[in-house]
Amino acid sequence: MLSLLLIVVFASRGFALDNGLALTPPMGWMHWQRFRCLIDCDAYPDECISENLFKTMADKMAEEGYLGAGYDHLIIDDCWMGEHRDAQGRLQPNSTRFPSGIKALSDYVHSKGLKFGIYSDYGTKTCAGYPGSHGHLETDAQTFADWGVDYLKLDGCYADLDDLEPGYIQMGKYLNQTGRPIVYSCSWPAYQEPKGIKVCNQSYTVLCNQTYTSLFQPNYTALRDTCNLWRNWDDIDDTWSNVTNILKWFSENQDRIAEFSGPGHWNDPDMLIIGNFGLSYEQSKAQMALWAIMAAPLIMSVDLRTIEPKFRDILLNREVIKINQDALGIQGRLITTIKKIDVWTKPILPNEGAPSYAVGFLSNRVDGYPYRLNVTLAQLGINQAEKYKIQDVFDPMTREVSQNETIFVRVKPTGVVLLTATPILDKQK
Ligand SMILES: *[C@@H]1O[C@H](CO)[C@@H](O)[C@H](O)[C@H]1NC(C)=O
Ligand SMILES: *[C@@H]1O[C@H](CO)[C@@H](O)[C@H](O)[C@H]1NC(C)=O
Ligand SMILES: *[C@@H]1O[C@H](CO)[C@@H](O)[C@H](O)[C@H]1NC(C)=O
Ligand SMILES: *[C@@H]1O[C@H](CO)[C@@H](O)[C@H](O)[C@H]1NC(C)=O
After folding, report:
1. Is residue 418 within 8 Å of residue 360, measured between CB atoms?
2. 333-424: which CATH number, 3.40.140.10, 3.30.1950.10, 2.60.40.1180, 3.30.460.10?
3. pLDDT tens, position by position, 418-429
4. Is residue 155 flagged as an active site residue?
5. What is the pTM of this model?
6. Domain 2-324 maps to which CATH number in 3.30.565.10, 3.30.2010.30, 3.40.640.10, 3.20.20.70?
7. Closest ligand relative to 152 C-alpha
8. Are 369 and 377 in contact (CB under 8 A)?
9. Ligand 1 site, residue 83, Cβ cutoff 6 A
């Protein structure tokens, strides 16, 4: 009887990965977008994927305010490995580029107050062709735990699409069995979403022998139960069109995926490209604002030695980070598009009788001047209180408005205006 009751309670509540981690969207730095698979240390000693690069970035993160602002994970992506496993079948780093070994690097990163993340691939090879974890999941989980890894990005190249879900679930069990809490970053929807999946159960036996069909989508319940975050869609490259493509995909699929994001488990639209070569200053603010509204992991990928101060200030903007790290963990949504300006909202704290919101206005206009949009909060579904205090996150401005009062926002071409709206509650009550 008791066990039956428990089953009912759990079934209605739903499981979610319970490793106590990532209660707000993970933050950190990862090398891929800026440094890719640059392994030629003779030609580019300061940029190649090596322990020197990661130690230098760890120093910068600790000393220049990134750690203080919340960016607490330093994460190695692909191309750290040697060509082969060692005699015991364990992964090992490239010995010329990581002469001190991964444990020593992990210790160094920890000594800076940071957490240490690493990359492997569920398939037979990593995307860049290094040894994959297929057939070695348990060994690799234990190796990572022994090295003091706090965060694992498990990629999905060189694997069967219909093998991904059970394989990632199995790896999650092995990580759990190590006893070391490790943030688990999954990639299986990024491989399944574009192609669909093979469905071969009682309801769909007819499809068993067929190829993948995009009618069938990744199981987000399984993702939430298995992973702390997961890459949903295509990789980001260093261009504004990639940012807008990702926002388009996230908004088109928001009714299907947003509900699975929350404390401990997050949709991941990929890295921040702020401070690199492809985004203007306004576009950089826009990526930061929209990633905050989507409750996306904030993973920088930029050379912290050479980043210009104005981009650094965007990454370190405490008000934007606060919206992203809001404890409710609600993924914001595209509410409406007015005159080519997308309006996104995200409920945030405080919520004392009526929710507060972050509101992002993203311009898809290119007509060269800051376009003036007239809009009321009620029009955006922000109508649970009569009056709100609105604040502009990037430009100092505070006003009190009623929900039906027109507010004017001026949005620069491909830029953003980010506001917060906090209810002004009737003090008499
Ligand atoms: C280590 O990486 C270098 C390139 O930086 C490569 O030439 C060398 O073969 C690699 N060594 C091993 C043992 O994989
Ligand atoms: C392993 O899973 C159990 C059950 O979900 C959980 O209570 C525990 O905290 C997990 N341990 C680690 C190290 O993730
Ligand atoms: C999705 O995964 C959950 C378990 O995490 C399972 O209960 C459910 O049956 C799966 N749905 C489908 C359609 O396979
Ligand atoms: C980013 O742009 C590249 C080059 O145009 C493209 O191949 C890739 O699919 C794009 N990714 C996204 C997420 O739009």
Report:
1. yes
2. 2.60.40.1180
3. 999 999 987 644
4. yes
5. 0.95
6. 3.20.20.70
7. 2
8. no
9. yes
